[in-house]
Amino acid sequence: MREYTTPLVADVPPSARLTDTVFDRAARDPSAVVLRRRHGGTTGTWQDVTAAEFAAEVLSFAKGLIAAGIVAGDRVALMSRTRYEWTVADYGIWAAGAVTVPIYETSSAEQVEWVLTDSGSRAVVVETTAHLATVAQALPRAPEVSRVWLIEGDAAGDGGAGGDLPDGLVAEVSALAGEGAGVSDEEAGRRRSEGAGTDTASIIYTSGTTGRPKGCVLTHANLLADVRNAVNGPLSKVFEIPGAATLLFLPLAHSFARVIQVGCIEAGIALGHTPDVRNLLPDLASFKPTFVLAVPRVFEKVYNGAEQQAAASPVKSRIFRAAAATAIAWSRASNGSPGSGPGPLLNAQHTLFDRLVYAKLRAALGGRVTHAVSGGAPLGERLGHFFHGAGVTVLEGYGLTETSAATTVNRPERVKIGTVGQPLPGASVRIADDGEILIHGPNVFMGYWRNEAATAEVLEDGWLRTGDIGELDDEGYLSVTGRKKELIVTAGGKNVAPAVLEDRIRAHYLVSQCLVVGDQRPYVACLITLDEEALALWQSRHPRQPGEGAEDVRHDPELLAEVQSAVDDANKAVSRAESVRRFRILGTDFTELNGYLTPSLKVRRNLVIKDFAADIDALYA
């Protein structure tokens, strides 16, 4: 199939704004719980936030912005970890008629400077004094910024974090309520309701694996069309579960988490936030979500962590391996042709392992999770079947920042593991002659901010060129097989999509990142980095010198044999000509801090190839 369209189920009125639902629900059902926030630090309790309370905080924030001189269309940057105040600020900016410009909280001063200057932001909201210090370095070259508000900390006694910033430039977010006290509800209401759905709601800068980030212009209508058609369409069963709730831990600066935030507000789902993934498991246990949002790396670490815990005991290890094999077999049988299904013996084994293994895994996620939404990269069939068999159905989806995040997703009632699902209602997916995935629909962005040339490169007659390659099956389910620009052509003329191999190799518990190489080379090879936590567990079971890191053990024969098993498994998915012949373990991992990963955890392929050229050459020596 070359093109597939899913009929629209939720039409967005021309006047619709993202804040409408916030104030409509507060008037209609003021006591409804719409968010939960942590009080008392990481060990504190979760406190309900009602629709009326949330609307009041959003209105107060908006009034403060209006009093500070922010006018409709002004850009306000937001640099913070994922927390309750992020959502308040986001909706407060929209309620003031302004545009939110998210900045990753891990961004450098140079990256912050680019976003502030390119977007022409008038103000900045930062979370901590550390973020303030980063922003302060950028402000001398961002003259349009006239105000900075601090969520956490003392703006007056910031210990020099603000550098030599002018007096009065920095204030605490809590001061916004006082600043806006003179703005009437009527004036704020007019500001909120003025304009149309085609007005810009957010400019999200793509993290980019090469070059300067580009600002994706998303309108109120873009985001509303995306979430309303998801909530009322393929994800309705997830959002309609009694007591539905989710805990966000991915960065809200990324469009994936952002669209779930908007979806929860639209659907009235209890939304929580946790800024530190180190506290994720205890937070999940106390919050008890019904569904979670994660990228494939999170699912890999959950599986690998469970596998390694079991490895401490030979008996537990055998039980876990048998339970994993049973979950995968049960899921494959359950997803077979109509009328087929698991036989009596497989069902009995599945029931036994549910008590011994799967229930514990679900308990670690809070005990109520039935579904998870995954995006950002392919999950892989093995993990998809394992989690489905363990009682947590992972709904893989696909999209780009340019498509307001989501474009396709699997349905709870019809999951095709290994695909990213069918288009959302109102969206169309087309496969071009060269295999590129093209997208059309109300969720497709307006273009790149102040960059007509880049916009013209990706938009043609309303169709977005994604740069990804893929296939549609006879039911309109999409499979993404790689990136056009990342296709490797070996010296023998063989086209190789690296993603297939990289995803399989990364599934091994010892592997953190993998980058397949071989363009214009005689064969395919790869660079591999080690997971720090998994390496420590491996070392605990192998007598080694204490404190040895990846650089010390990367040539260890036993370690190389372990990683070779991951490469061998990946090679089963491809032909001999596409298989990885050699690999090299690096002494350092790819991270955001060293610049080899984007904030959305994509490898900056060109930078790695440049900086590790000697290691790549050694693979062909």
Question: What is shown here, in short?
Answer:
With 621 residues, this protein is an alpha/beta fold. It is 38% helix and 20% strand.
Shape: globular
Beta content: 15-25%
> What structural category do the secondary elements indicate?
alpha/beta
Q: Summarize the main sheet.
A: 6 strands, antiparallel
Q: N-to-C terminal Cα separation, in Å?
A: 44 Å
Taking pLDDT < 50 over at least 5 consecutive residues as the criterion, the unreliable ranges are none
What's the number of extended β-strand segments? 28
Helix coverage percent: 25-40%
How many H/I helical runs? 22
Rg to the nearest angstrom? 25 Å
Average of pLDDT = 91
Strands, helices and their partners?
Layout (H helix, E strand, L loop, with lengths): L2 E3 L14 H9 L4 E7 L5 E6 H17 L7 E5 L4 H12 L3 E5 L5 H11 L3 E4 L2 H10 L8 E4 L19 E3 L3 H4 L5 H9 L6 E6 L9 E5 H12 L4 H4 L5 E4 L6 H13 L2 E4 L6 H8 L3 E4 L1 H16 L2 H21 L9 H21 L6 E4 L6 H9 L3 E6 L9 E2 L12 E2 L4 E4 L4 E5 L6 E2 L3 H7 E2 L2 E10 L5 E6 L4 E2 L5 E2 L1 H9 L4 E7 L6 E7 L1 H9 L9 H4 L3 H15 L8 E6 L19 H7 L1 H7 L2
Parallel strand pairs: 4-5, 4-6, 6-7, 7-8, 11-12, 13-14, 14-15, 27-28
Antiparallel strand pairs: 1-18, 2-3, 9-10, 10-20, 15-16, 16-17, 18-19, 19-22, 21-22, 22-23, 24-25, 26-27
Helix pairs in contact: 1-2, 2-3, 4-5, 8-10, 12-13, 13-14, 13-15, 17-20
